[in-house]
Structure formats: C-alpha cells, structure tokens
TrEMBL record:
Gene designation: FOL3
SUPFAM superfamilies in the cross-refs: MurD-like peptide ligases, catalytic domain (SSF53623), MurD-like peptide ligases, peptide-binding domain (SSF53244)
Gene Ontology MF terms in the entry: ATP binding; dihydrofolate synthase activity; metal ion binding; tetrahydrofolylpolyglutamate synthase activity
GO cellular component: cytosol; mitochondrion
Natural source organism: Aspergillus chevalieri (Eurotium chevalieri)
Top-level class of the enzyme under EC nomenclature: ligase
This protein's name: Dihydrofolate synthetase
Pathway: Cofactor biosynthesis; tetrahydrofolylpolyglutamate biosynthesis
Secretion signal, residue range per the UniProt entry: none
Length: 423
C-alpha cells in the first residue's frame, strides 16, 4: 500500500544525520534518465556518487548504486535489516518505500558518498525522499497525468505536488518542454520561494550549451532524450561549483554517450531465451507520455524497415489501456498479451488480466493477430518471435514486464553457460 507523508521517514532517520549533499529529481517521465546522466558524469569526474531510483529493475537492491555499480547484496541486506529492526522496535509502521529510502540513505552514509542523486518515488511534496535538506539543486522533469488518486486530478495539481521538492535558497532546473499549465504552476511556486529557476529547452542548446549541441547532433537523439540530457547537464552546472569548483562540466560531456538506462528504449538479444538473433526493443513505457515517446521512436526507427510491428505487452491495473496502447499499436500489428509476476517489495502492484488486455487491443482498428498468454511470458515472446519472423519486435507496457524479461534472460544465460546470449 502506498502511504505518502514525511513523519515516519523523519522518525526513522532522526538519529542518522545524512553526511552527503543531494541532487533531487522529480517528474512523471525522464527523472530516471536524468538521474543516470547526472550520476554517471559525477562519477566520471571523480566525485564519489550514490544513486537511488525506483522501482528496482531485476533485483531489489539494483535501485541503489555507488559510483555506477549496483550496491553489494550483502551490504544492502545488512543495512535493510537494521532499518527494519529499528522500525519494528520503535513502532513507526514505515511503508515499504520508506524502509527502502532509509536503507538507501544509510548506505550512502556508510559508503561515504559526496553526492547522492535521488529520484522521487511519487509526487514530491510528501514523498519519503523529500526529507532531504542539504540539496545542491532540485530538478523537475516532464510532468504528466499519473497517480491521480494520490496526486490530484488535474495537471496543475500534480505539478504543485511535484514542485514540493523545491526549497528556499536551492537552485532549480525545469524541463521547459512541459505544458503551459505545468510551466505556469512551477513559475508561480518558484516566485513564491524567491528562487532563480533555470528553464531549459533543447531548442536553445545551440546558443546556451554549444558543446552539448554537438553531442545532440552526433547521437541523433529524440526530443525527449535531448530534454533529459540538457536538464542533467544544467543541474551539474549548478551543483559542481559547490562540490568540485575546478571541475568543468564540458570536460565530462564526452562520457554522456556511455550512459545506458536499462528497460527504456533498450535493444536486447533474447537468445538463448528464444531462438531469435535479431535485436528486440524493450521499453517500460507505462503512462500516456512515455507511450507517446515510444510510439514516436518506433515510427522513426522501426516502421521504416517494415510497416508492421509485433508486440508483447502487459500493464498494471488502473491504467487507461486504450490511451496507453493506442499510442503505439497501429493497424496491421500483431500483439501477444501477458502479465508480469509479483513485484518484490510492492505487493499492491497487480497486472491486468491478459485476456482483458487482449479484448481491449482487439477493439483497435485493423489489428492482425492478438493472442493472450496468461502469465507465460516465454510462450508469449516465442509466439511473437515466430510471428515477427525477424521483423520488428517490441516488448512494452510495463516496467515490471521489462524486469521479468531481463530476469528470465539472465536465468537463461546462466543456464546456457558462458559465451552465449548477450544483451
């Protein structure tokens, strides 16, 4: 169950002063990518850096990294057990995410990081991560409609909740590609706090950040990727003088092309899980904005090769299925529906029944084959691989489905032995 609020996490960490400075990132989409860019560039510059994102991808501890390496499982379990014991002994009743946040922050202390790059879990104002006080810069990424039951029914209400991470005397960076309603809401809050807000738009990069503009051109990035990268670089320009005054962001920029963000527009090879040698696109798009981005990417990168695309999809309950999948499934496509398994640490997350999902997709105009596979993900991707016959194949609709795919692939590679199946 999701329980927003700061009282439990504050008590849980009241005897643990945080020994590091933070870069705090909120938003609906893009905050994970921004976190990855920021932490990678910091680590490339020799700044000892921790990163905390959510949810985890394959293992529960992979949401915490130290200098771009996933924290050791043994250390994670040791500190998590200490945090849980403290919670039980003092009777705080902390939620799963609050326990995880406290564990991450304690690990940052233990590992003596200089900067913690922290992604908001949900919202901002009442998110457990908002107990951070020593913040170098706050970042607001792209905001859309999501989690309305907890954050508000309008885009303005949601933007106000996300703006709750903004703090007096702390500079902020805002993705200026946000809607007018979001920008107006954020500007109002920034003025209330008397902050200097840095609203960054990739169209202005040529004049304001020419070094980054050259990287944009070389990497052939989509608009949302440019916006996320520009937000990350702008945040570093504000944060570095307080951490490494002699370190210039431009000297770190060549490292930005090394950043990989698994589960987001990720090309993988599914061998030996299935007998397909051609790459498959894996993406955790799970809301309207991210689905639109995926649709644009597929139109630009995959459909020119072959008009029809084959999909393997799943979704969490509570999503607008027509809005989500209508953004990228097109006439002539083939679709396999499945569901992800239990999510470690988040028992409240449930998958849509694959038959219900198949019924929804069948209502789309001129869809070809649609087949439901219950919880049998390997059967779904085998069927899709055969139907695609070497053509474009995309797995999407849920980050939890992406997690299950990567976990199954790791198990298949382990069973196959060294030298087989790389992703």
């Amino acid at each position: 169950m999701i329980e927003l609020g700061l009282s439990r996490i504050s008590r849980l960490l009241q005897q643990t002063p945080l020994s590091w400075k933070a870069i705090h990132i909120a938003g609906t989409n893009g905050k994970g990518s921004i976190s990855a860019y920021v932490s990678h560039l910091l680590a490339s510059g020799g700044v000892r850096c921790g990163r905390f994102t959510s949810p985890h991808l394959i293992d529960r501890w992979d949401c915490i990294t130290i200098d771009e390496k996933v924290v050791q499982e043994s250390l994670f379990r040791q500190i998590e057990e200490e945090v849980k014991l403290r919670d039980q002994t003092l009777g705080f009743g902390a939620s799963e995410f609050e326990l995880l946040t406290a564990t991450a922050f304690e690990i940052f202390n233990h590992e003596r990081v200089e900067v913690g790059v922290v992604e908001v879990g949900m919202g901002g104002r009442l998110d457990a991560t908002n107990i951070l006080s020593d913040v170098l810069v706050s970042v607001i990424a792209k905001i859309g409609l999501d989690h309305q039951a907890l954050l508000g029914n309008s885009i303005e209400e949601i933007a106000r909740e996300k703006a709750g991470i903004l703090k007096p005397h702390t500079p902020c960076v805002v993705d200026a590609t946000n809607s007018t309603e979001v920008i107006t809401t954020l500007e109002s809050r920034i003025q209330e706090l008397g902050l200097e807000g840095d609203f960054v738009h990739p169209e202005a990069v040529e004049s304001q950040a020419p070094s980054l503009a050259r990287i944009f051109e070389r990497l052939d990035l989509l608009p949302h990727q440019r916006a996320n990268m520009y937000c990350a670089v702008s945040a570093l320009q504000l944060a570095l003088p307080k951490v490494r005054p002699r370190l210039d962001v431009d000297t770190l920029l060549p490292h930005i092309s090394e950043v990989k963000w698994p589960g987001r527009l990720q090309d993988i090879v599914l061998e030996p899980l299935v007998a397909r040698k051609e790459p498959v696109l894996l993406d955790g798009a799970h809301n309207a904005q991210s689905a639109q981005v995926l649709g644009e990417y597929v139109e630009r990168k995959l459909r020119p090769q072959q008009k029809n695309v084959t999909w393997v999809i799943a979704a969490s309950r509570g999503k607008d299925l027509t809005e989500l999948f209508g953004a990228f499934i097109k006439p002539g496509d083939d679709v396999a529906t499945t569901s992800f398994g239990p999510v470690d640490g988040m028992p409240w997350v449930k998958a849509v029944d694959p038959t219900e999902l198949a019924t929804c997709v069948q209502s789309f105009p001129e869809i070809q084959q649609v087949k439901a596979f219950d919880k049998d993900i390997p059967a779904a991707i085998n069927w899709a691989s055969n139907v695609a016959n070497g053509g474009p194949l995309v797995i999407a609709g849920s980050l939890y489905l992406a997690s299950d795919i990567l976990r199954l692939l790791r198990e298949a590679q382990t069973s196959a032995g060294p030298g087989r199946g790389t992703c």
